[in-house]
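Record type: monomer structure entry
Structure origin: computed from sequence
Chain ID: A
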Amino acid sequence: MAANLNRDAYDRPPRAGTWPLGWIESLGLAALALRRCLGLYLRILVGRGRLDLPAFAWSLRQSGLTILPAMTLVGIVAGAILGHQTESILERFNLPGLVLLSINYALVMELVPILVGILVAGRAGVALAVRQAALSVRGEVDGLLITGIDPLTYTLAPALLAMLIMSFAFAVWGSLVTFAATFLWLWLVANVPPALFLDSLAGALGPGDLLEAILKPMLFALLIALIATVNGTAAGRDPLNIGEAATRTMIGAVTIILIADLVIILLVRQ
């Protein structure tokens, strides 16, 4: 039965982007892929399954090590921009504590998670979509099904785990780098006392805020992985659709990141 479901997904891929059937089919495929992926993780935990370690190592590098220089550079630049803008605001308003509190809150809760999500989408998400599409185009799906391997979890399981781990790591690293750049700019250029910056940081964020700031990029990574899987599968067996799958993944990932962030703001921060 599972093999038939997988074969149908590739022989008659979801019509991504069409309304309403295409969206319904895409959501169904995403739910199926997530369920099977979580099932694999559970079997691994109880010792009844195994993860493809070479694929996991490749995915970890794809979604982590290759993004680290970009994440560091983006964090430094974003911190410098925030420092400069904060300096301009402080020159107009004599409320340094309030301004710094707002800047620190926005940096941790919004800027860094969204930047991490976009970078993971642009690198790991697009790569996952291309790999999933190429799997079908090259005819490897039939070979996997014959050997009893689920094509959905074959590509998604290692990539999703790597994206979750690296999104967590980048949320921490990106916040530290951006904070450091902002702090140094305000201290050295705007002459803001370090104690004032640190006090505003402590007052802006509580334990619940820090937990949300770490979990949000991981939620974005989950959504990106599912979008990439759906778009890669939707490419079918036409090689020309591989590029379209990558484009759809990037556009869909950025859109879902912003929508998910808005939903969190409306539902969690009431």
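Annotation 1: The chain has a mean pLDDT of 81.
Annotation 2: DSSP finds ten helices and no strands in the chain.
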